[in-house]
Design goal:
There is one protein chain. By secondary structure, the protein is mainly alpha-helical. The chain is 67% helix and 0% strand. Helix 3 (52-76) packs antiparallel against helix 4. Belongs to the steroid 5-alpha reductase family.
């Protein structure tokens, strides 16, 4: 999402280069941490893919990803070409929460944490909650 979403935006304010680099480094470090945790340290019993924890977590991740993608689509198409100004998003989960894209991403990573059951995935889910939760609160206000 960190690489694809900015490329899909038609117009808008440019992202400062330093902010982009920090976000990229965070994503690279987190990807490494999650991958290393799952490939080197996590052990799962036979049949883990049928365990309710994994199934519920996977469904949460999938639902969160769907909400996130759909919400981003709504946000990218808020304004017509050349139009400026603030617009309130409508449709999808925006009918229930003002930061549907943030909600989707938080749900996505808590689902991932439940499916993986590792301390690293839980740490990332909590960081996502605190960072995106504060951004969602700002957007709501």
């Amino acid at each position: 999402r960190a690489l694809i979403f900015p490329l899909l935006i038609r117009e808008g304010k440019p992202t400062p280069f330093f902010t982009f680099v920090l976000a990229l480094l965070f994503c690279v470090f987190n990807g490494y941490l999650q991958g290393r945790s799952l490939s080197n340290y996590a052990t799962y019993p036979p049949g883990w893919l049928k365990d309710p924890c994994f199934i519920i977590g996977f469904i949460g991740w999938l639902l969160g990803m769907g909400i996130n993608i759909h919400s981003d689509h709504i946000l990218r198409n808020l304004r017509k070409p050349g139009e400026t100004g603030y617009r309130i998003p409508r449709g999808g989960m925006f009918e229930y929460v003002s930061g549907a894209n943030f909600f989707g991403e938080i749900l996505e990573w808590f689902g991932f944490a439940l499916a993986c059951c590792t301390i690293e995935s839980l740490a990332f889910a909590l960081c996502t909650l605190f960072i995106l939760g504060s951004r969602a609160r700002q957007h709501h206000q």
